[in-house]
Specification:
The protein is of the alpha+beta class. It is 48% helix and 20% strand.
Amino acid sequence: MSSIPQQRLDRLIERWHTLQAALNAGPSAADFAKFSKEFSELDPVVSAIEALRRAEAERDDLAAMIKSSAGDREMAEMAEDEQRAVSARIEGLEQDLRIQLLPKDSADAADVVLEIRAGTGGDEAALFAADLYRMYSRYAEQHGWKCDVISMSENDLGGYKEIIAAISGKGVFARLKFESGVHRVQRVPATEASGRIHTSAATVAVLPQPEEVDLQIKPEELRIDTMRAGGAGGQHVNKTESAVRILHIPTGIIVVSAEKSQHQNRRLAMQVMRSRLYEMQRQQADDARSAARKDQVGSGDRSQRIRTYNFPQGRVTDHRIGLTLHRLGEMLEGGAALDELIDSLITDHQTSQLAAMAGGGL
């Protein structure tokens, strides 16, 4: 484990013990929340360190046994076999620990605002946007997450020109953050009588929701207006000024929420505003990440794609990692195929991080 400095591991274990003692001492509510969060993040790391050190101690004991059994060939061979097995296990434990020690995205534990917009393809793109929202809402349901629509703009066929939703639960952003980008679909549209395959696109943006301590918005930076909701009719539409429009003056970001309750609209609009401002801060703090996200989301043009959903062949291809799964139906139901693809994206990201850090060690 020469690439992982022992002093660093010792400091992590010491910090874990310090946090444990602080939590047992009955800290204030604010300190308890802060210490608990750090402790929960550090706990699996310490467990990985301890598992590795136990395996290393076992390997050293076997080495001593081999040395002392020089006159007993059968005993020495048994110890050598066990030592090879332990050494292989140590390699896996070292790799697991290296992954645990990779820099964490501070937003991985955050809830998200999911924004899906129809891109190239007209009505078919809007129908595909609806398919994508259904996929993510089903995925959220299967993971025990809560998914609430904040706003939507429908077309006449039941598709979405735009839909914005809040998804909350454990580790939502960590699982969904690689879904940001242009998603392309190839299929025969329901609106196409001649049966020709069309290509359409929709954009997906996954924005982490900041904690209060992560982002402060000054009241004087906001202009909040109420207006009458627009829509396709109904008793409520255009009779009460329930829709809320919020402008963040320094950045020019505008968010509109037009559900029935003005109070709810204000809360939902602020939720989206905070997420967009937080993402802007994250981009400014990391130029490389900002450039990557711009390339992914783009303008909705079909040439800027991260994933293709091909209905005639029943396959999904993620172009970033070159992975193709012939399980389109399962994918669109938010099932295990989507989990497998997300796991592959996370593994690829971790591998890239490990390769980048290999030169200087962890």
